[in-house]
């Protein structure tokens, strides 16, 4: 009988151990690198750029972000900064982002002041969608909205959309817009002239019809059907 050859030890367990060691080293190095970057002054915020503002003070916007120059870029909470800026008057939308290696950008979209209503003796400014965003002051160029319940959000939205649809040359002549409800809108112009809209549906067509009828004779126009304006 032949002599049996001794068994050769398997190498797989040793390879597995080696792989685990390498993986552990990689993880440790990644953690160390991340910690160094997180604390490194090389990634400090050096510039905070604010754009899109015309009514707000850029310095006020910058301060409200809570971001400090010298703060590590990785530690900037862009979501929290945006939420804080969004609470400022005039801010409709805002985005805060990192621009590597050292800049934080704040892009603001402001509300478009369209109309103003009285609420408890205080002016409340509405944007083009009828959203109230400013109290206690009346910016230049907004249209007075009267006859409206300031808590009737549908009426506010309809009146603001109607005003926003008017061409600039027509809006500049407008004395006020009467909004009894969302289905009863009347534009009032100087010299006793007015244009009845009804609702704000087909606002672009009604705005064009308003422009046209104001070039004609007649004091009281109805453009609720903009295809067939009528006068009385």
Automatic annotation (TrEMBL):
Pfam families: POTRA_1 (PF08478)
The keyword Glycoprotein appears for this protein: no
Residue intervals of the POTRA domain: 43-111
The UniProt record lists the keyword Translocase: no
GO CC entries: plasma membrane
Superkingdom: Bacteria
Xref: InterPro entries: FtsQ_DivIB, POTRA, POTRA_FtsQ_type
Protein name per the record: Cell division protein FtsQ
Protein species of origin: Corynebacterium bovis
Organism taxonomic ancestry: Bacteria, Bacillati, Actinomycetota, Actinomycetes, Mycobacteriales
């Amino acid at each position: 009988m032949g002599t049996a050859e001794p068994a050769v030890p398997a190498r797989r367990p040793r390879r597995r151990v080696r792989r685990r060691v390498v993986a552990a080293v990689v993880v440790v190095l990644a953690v160390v690198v991340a910690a160094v970057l997180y604390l490194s002054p090389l990634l400090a915020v050096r510039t905070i750029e604010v754009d899109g503002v015309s009514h707000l003070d850029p310095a006020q916007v910058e301060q409200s972000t809570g971001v400090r120059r010298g703060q590590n870029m990785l530690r900037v909470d862009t979501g929290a900064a945006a939420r804080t800026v969004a609470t400022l008057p005039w801010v409709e939308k805002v985005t805060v982002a990192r621009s590597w290696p050292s800049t934080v950008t704040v892009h603001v979209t402001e509300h478009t002041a369209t109309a103003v209503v009285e609420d408890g003796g205080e002016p409340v400014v509405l944007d083009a969608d009828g959203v109230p965003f400013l109290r206690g002051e009346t910016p230049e160029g907004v249209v007075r909205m009267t006859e409206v319940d300031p808590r009737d959000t549908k009426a506010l939205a309809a009146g603001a959309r109607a005003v926003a649809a008017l061409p600039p040359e027509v809006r500049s002549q407008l004395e006020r817009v009467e909004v009894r409800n969302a289905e009863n809108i009347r534009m009032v112009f100087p010299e006793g002239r007015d244009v009845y809209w009804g609702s704000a549906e087909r606002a672009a067509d009604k705005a064009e019809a308003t422009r046209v009828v104001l070039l004609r004779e007649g004091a009281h126009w109805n453009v609720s059907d903009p295809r067939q304006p009528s006068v009385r």
